[in-house]
Amino acid sequence: xxxxxxxxxxxxxxxxxxxxxxxxxxxxxxxxxxxxxxxxxxxxxxxxxxxxxxxxxxxxxxxxxxxxxxxxxxxxxxxxxxxxxxxxxxxxxxxxxxxxxxxxxxxxxxxxxxxxxxxxxxxxxxxxxxxxxxxxxxxxxxxxxxxxxxxxxxxxxxxxxxxxxxxxxxxxxxxxxxxxxxxxxxxxx
Length: 189
Hints:
By secondary structure, this protein is mostly helical.
């Protein structure tokens, strides 16, 4: 009887250690993935903002100097689109987690909110990024050229941008959302 009781206690203790180890490993893996995602998003935002800042004065100057009305309208729309892009990226950044000085649960909840906002940004990329750029470029191309091939290239680029963003959402953010949800549920238990 004593052997059976000792065996049961041993099996119970080792199971709890495995579960504790698995939770720690899960959280470590999740934290590494979150850091990788944050670095990628920071790089994306820097690229987009630098490009927008470079475009604003260049196309502002074109709108001022050129005489073609389509080019002027396109340049003004492109400047406004760049400002919209900067605003949208910065608005999504306000949900970025503040740090690890909170509880683990609060930190994971902050991360989930941030990842959810980034996913929402990619889900709506057609409306705040692709369509405004596309419309701006339609006017610019109309002001510079009447070639059908230029319009076809723009359509293919817009479709490509849309699917690249959808793929990033599906491949990177949705699995991360699920892992954060699972980690939060695990902490609830």
